[in-house]
Every structure is written in C-alpha cells, then in structure tokens.
Amino acid sequence: MNDVRALAPFDFHVHTGNSHDGRGTADDYCRVAVEQGMKAVGFCEHVDLDPNDFVFGEHDYGKYRSEVEEARAKYGDRLMIRMGAEIGYVPRIEKEISDYLNQFQYDYVVGAVHAIGDGFSGISEEYDALETFARHEFMEVYEQYFDIVRQMVASGLFDVVGHLDLVNRYGVHYLQEELEWGIFYGQLRRIFEGLIKRQMALEINTSGLRQSPQATYPPRVALDLYREVGGRSVIIGSDAHSPDLLGSGVPAALSLARSLRLNSNVSFKDRLLEQID
After folding, report:
1. Structure confidence by residue, pLDDT tens digits, 9-31
2. Most exposed: 67, 76, 95, 198, by fewest CB within 10 Å?
3. Does position 152 have pLDDT exceeding 50, yes or no?
4. Is 21 exposed, middle or buried (0-12, 13-18, 19+ CB in 10 A)?
C-alpha cells in the first residue's frame, strides 16, 4: 500500500477501470483515501473522442457517473469526491469535444495532448513515441507538441492543462544532454498567458517522478516561468491507474508548489475553480 497518510491530503488525477488503461473502482480508491486520511479525490477518466483512436467511443458516462454517485453516498461525509475527465486534444476534433461537453456534465475537464501530426503520431506510449521520434527531428516533435498545447488552451474547452510536457516522457531518451527549456520560452509563455487569461489551472502531474524524466510534469523550471508570467493556480494529481498508486508523489509536488508560492489548494466543482481547505 502507498502510505501517504497526513502527507497527501488530496489527489485530483486518478483513473479507475472506467478508463481503458485503469484498474479498480471508485469505491476502491475512496476506501484507500479514507484509510489514509485524505480529504479529497478527483477521478479523471479518459474520454477519447478521436475516431482514429483505438478506444474511441468506449467511455461509458452513465456507468462512470453511477460509480461516483455511489461512492459519494458511501464516503461523502468523510471525503470530497470530484468527477473529472481527461480528454485527448486534437485540433481537428474541437467541435466534437465541444458537442460532447455540452451534453455531459463534469466537475472539471483536463485537456491533454498525446500526439502530434494531427493526432497520428503518438508521444505518450513507448512504441508510438519510438516511431514518432524516428520520423521527425527531435526539436520538431517538441515544437509541434507545444504548439498543439497552445491551441488546446486557446480553444477554451478545458479547465486544466494536464501533464504539460508529457512529450518528455520518452523524449528524454533522445536527448544528448539535459534539455534546455529556454529554447521553448516563447511557446511556454504563450501557453501560460492563455491559461491565466481563461482562468484555467496548470496541473502538477507526479507520474513523471515514476517515469524516465524523474521529475514532475512540468518540472520546476517550467513552473518558475508560469509564476513569472503571473500564474498561481495549480492542481495536483498522481495520474494513478490503480489504487495502490493513489497519492504517489503528491507530497513532493505540494512541497514544490509551496516553494514557488503557487496555490495548490484548488480544485473544481461544476467547471468552476474553487479554493479548498
């Protein structure tokens, strides 16, 4: 068991079996959260709206909502439970995303980029990333990726920018030396300015601590820039895909946020940013 008692008060990015790659139920996560003395859990199931995605159309909103409502009835007096979604953003499906979000209700929606090249060149899975970096120059992959993140923010469809630099998950294997983040200063600044303008939150995703980058997504240097341009709100999540990882890395992310004077005591309810205790 991942014991984060009294250290990880919340975790706003977890995946149950309602995501194609998740395990466990909402009840499983909430039981662990209560046992560990956590105050809040935010489910963030994958919703894949790109017809070219192999799991397109598999998300069952009704089943998901039912699980969350049952968990709220059982644990709601001891645990704040939020129902979110992680939607993979591809510019060509903006209308489909908008139509979907007009039909279904969530507490918050995380926008995430998992591919470049109009969605056909993956960067978040090992084999896909191998092909993508084989076909494209290293800098081209990163620049395309951050440009799509910028478009995602500009779309106004999302509440949170999820794992900002996920491209680095496998990109680090193609680096000759440590990544110079200053190269992407202009792109990152535009992303952050758009995020702040739309009153979105930036996620500090701790899964990178368990993966090759050995750092949060994004790392401290990018969070420094976020604060420099006026950003304050960050939402923290482990990206757990099984209950044993609930809260993993959250204490480190909280410490990082506090050292940069970022506000990590935020979440969303009914798509509105809220301050939490």
Report:
1. 999 999 999 999 999 999 999 99
2. 95
3. yes
4. exposed
